[in-house]
């Protein structure tokens, strides 16, 4: 597996670490990530040579809310192997009470040849699951 140019890790600061981890722990483990590191104010998950880090934002920075349409990260997209896996995530995400995006156009919100689910994490970061 070639690594050159692949993302090494992504670090996300979250408003409520415990709430975010309830979502991300489930979601990432479903995708095959394993717990990697943990400390008082953060936790990471690793799949192959890429890992994702979640850190509790300091109180003094909470007044700057995240919005995916502002400057910065718009969304994180993850591969799954089949359309059925996308559908399974759609059911599970609804059961967890997450906000679904573009639900009226599901599963083709990205186009007729693009089978995907779009939803938000607890901090309203857009997450995408797409059939490869």
TrEMBL record:
Pfam families per the UniProt record, alphabetical: Glyoxalase
Entry keyword Metal-binding: yes
Protein name per the record: VOC family protein
Gene3D superfamilies tied to this protein: 2,3-Dihydroxybiphenyl 1,2-Dioxygenase, domain 1
Organism, scientific name: Bacillus suaedaesalsae
Top-rank taxon: Bacteria
VOC domain residues: 6-132
Keywords (A to Z) from UniProt: Metal-binding
InterPro entries: Fosfomycin_Res_Enzymes, Glyas_Bleomycin-R_OHBP_Dase, Glyas_Fos-R_dOase_dom, VOC_core
């Amino acid at each position: 597996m070639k690594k050159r140019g692949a993302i090494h890790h992504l670090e996300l600061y979250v408003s409520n670490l415990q709430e975010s981890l309830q979502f991300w722990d489930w979601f990432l483990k479903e995708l095959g990530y394993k717990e990697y590191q943990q400390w008082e104010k953060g936790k990471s998950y690793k799949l192959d040579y890429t890992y994702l880090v979640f850190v509790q934002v300091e109180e003094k920075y909470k007044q700057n809310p995240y919005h995916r349409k502002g400057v910065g990260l718009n969304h994180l997209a993850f591969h799954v192997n089949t359309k059925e896996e996308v559908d399974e995530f759609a059911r599970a995400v609804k059961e967890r009470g997450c906000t679904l995006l573009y639900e009226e156009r599901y599963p083709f919100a990205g186009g007729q040849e693009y089978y995907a689910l779009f939803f938000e994490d607890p901090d309203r970061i857009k997450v995408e699951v797409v059939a490869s």
